[in-house]
Amino acid sequence: MKSMSVELRYSDEALIPLHRGLCESPALDREIILGGQSVDGVETISSFVYGSPDAYESILAEQESVLEYDLTTDENGFFVYLRQELGPQGLSMMDSLAQDTVVIVPPIEFRSDQTMRMTVVGHPDDLRAVSDSIPEGISIEILKIGDGVMTFETSISERQQDALRVAWDVGYFDVPRRNGIETVAAELDCAISTASELLRRGEAHAISQLLETDL
Asked: What is the spatial distance between Cα 131 and Cα 128, in angstroms, rounded to a whole number?
């Protein structure tokens, strides 16, 4: 049995509506799918979204395919329960993954840079079939291949990297500090609360990766 962690990069035309909204909204960072299933063309998922629940709910309200949803706020974002009809893009992706021995290992990470990351487990021939049958408009990069079952750790997002870079450039991390979070937010063209969340999550990822490397 083999595991394959991949990154799928979507063209503008291939983006599903919810992923497009995630990419376009400055108040949303990324969505981590924790589990789900698809039955008769209806997808039911549970996920966690980093960002504003109001921004996410406004996207849901515009989608006729959404059957029902429930949002529960948390310190760093909110949990989502969602049932929606799969459109042509979603059905095409499900067909690619529907190989005899293939299992998707959560989490699945939808990112604001038009990419999705996930790990699939199965026989080598079926994993190769997944890679070969990815729908048009989506490119695939294999991040890691291993024996047995594995998964990936969610990494720092592009928006978090941008926030850290801007904060560094304006002297937010200087001692003494040259500029505050208001300057960072102005440079990012977002709300102060959004800039603060991006920096806090970016710092947490960066520190955890540094400590893991040292250990």
From this structure: 5
